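This section describes the prediction task in plain terms. A model, or a person checking by hand, is given the sequence of a single protein chain and must write out its three-dimensional structure as a string of tokens. No templates, partner chains or ligands are provided. The sample shown here is typical of the held-out split.
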Amino acid sequence: MGVRGGEFPEFRARPPWLGGDLQTLRDWFLGARAAPPSAAGERLSIAAEDGSADILSVKLHRGGGGGRPVVFLWHGLTGDETSASIRHAANYFLACGAHVARVNLRGAGPSRNTCRGYYHAGFCRDIGPVLAGVRAVLGADAGPALGVGVSLGGSILLNHLAATGEDAGLVAAATISAPIDLAGAAERLIQPRNWLYHRRLLAAMKSGAVAGAAAVSEAERAALDSARNVVEYDDRFIARRFGFAGAAGYYATCSANRKLDRITRPCVLIHAADDPWIPLRAYQAIAWPSLPAVRHVMAAGGGHVGFHGRGARWPWSLAVIGRFFGEMAGLTPP
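The expected answer:
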């Protein structure tokens, strides 16, 4: 395990979920059993600030009293507030005594019916309004703001941190299995060994893009229908919609590995060497000692957003983040 800025407990996989694929697939098989957040939640509707009239959706759970940290959770590609990884995280941070905000990316989950727009790996413009909206509701009860991004949500969070610097609105942040090199991740996902993941993910991407109130032209629908893999989806739909120079331009513009040196708020990136979706070389290529605000934790195992450890109630990645947030903002791990 490669670690900068402090040591964390070693990851030990929970049998029978051994190896990167089984760690990744566990929540596919058992995710429906993930407990909903232990604290009752309230639905917040927050207006986007880009003139689109889209309404963002957040589920807020109040934690252990006034002044406690507020942990914001961003889900991964094709996910939403109900994703197993988000429910695990919500329960973990509620057990820490924090307030928890489960954020739906634009056009995902409950926001499908209130948003004409959609998100991508660098679509971070909604983070500021969400942070402000949740803190306004909590008022004096809101303590330090902390952010956690899962998979693609991690890419979006890192783009926000890089773009805003000291004005990020977050005391500290963490990512789990973030695709920091988008081109490398796309190339890896379309390999034959990942055909099961790819087939399921591409179908969900296509259906999500046109769901609910989504404003999708006939030309865009035809482009979605014609996309045979995620690279073609990104090239024919995402790049054209958002003005990137094809998939290559999208990947180059939004890959967080090109921007880590711009991050000034404390941040930890957690990744597994056996992640079947994201090449290890993306993380190995970073000169981590040159990044004063960024730590990385590389576990030998854990898969993609797995980290289901032996004898643990919550994924190991959350224990790492809990300790990190304890250092940064006084969060008390359970």
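For orientation: Residues 190-254 form one domain.
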